[in-house]
Write a structure and sequence with these properties.
The protein is an alpha+beta fold. The chain contains two helices and five strands, in the order βββββαα.
Length: 178
């Protein structure tokens, strides 16, 4: 509900004052941030319209203050925030999309690039790779399904992390047990 009144006290240095409602009710505190526009500065005896709210301590205060001749702002009910429901919804959608894109990029970077098989040394001890194995970006023992697959990857694929002790035998605790 909009209330009409006039500014009866204003402290320009501190940016606050009081409005006396037209119906003779008790003065209401008003802060400069509650005005639709802050310039020109509010003046004593200036006619205004406002909505009644409460501050953090539960005291009555004026919000959505409009000087005589200005249009009433469209605000979220019960507050002096200029955020509309549509702008909040749009912000949430943008945040969700950004998070999805960031996660997608992170997930792709975890698995590494998918690389076709290409022997680094043609005279390698493995003359022809088994048809079911190819360098597809997997680098850890937890990605393997057998000792043969782990050996193929460690001998033919870049950036593998399957030989922790450097003895040339991959995945000793999972697949290639002695």
């Amino acid at each position: 509900m909009r209330i009409k009144g006039k500014i009866t006290h204003w402290n320009g240095q501190k940016g606050y004052g009081f409005i006396t409602p037209s119906k003779g009710e008790k003065q209401v505190f008003v802060h400069i941030s509650s005005f639709k526009t802050r310039q020109p500065a509010p003046r004593i005896n200036q006619l205004v319209g406002f909505s009644l709210s409460k501050d953090k301590q539960g005291r009555p205060c004026a919000v959505n203050v409009v000087r005589s001749g200005e249009q009433t702002p469209k605000m979220i009910k019960g507050g002096n925030s200029s955020w509309s429901f549509k702008s909040i919804a749009l912000l949430v959608v943008v945040i969700i999309i950004a998070a999805a894109l960031a996660y997608s990029k992170y997930d792709k970077s975890r698995s590494g690039p998918v690389m076709p098989f290409k022997a680094s040394n043609p005279s390698s001890s493995i003359s022809k790779p088994p048809a079911s194995f190819s360098c597809d970006g997997r680098t850890h023992c937890s990605h393997m399904t057998s000792c043969a697959e782990a050996k193929f990857f460690i001998q033919n694929c870049p950036n593998t992390k399957m030989d922790g002790d450097g003895d040339g035998v991959p995945c000793e605790s999972q697949w290639c047990k002695h």
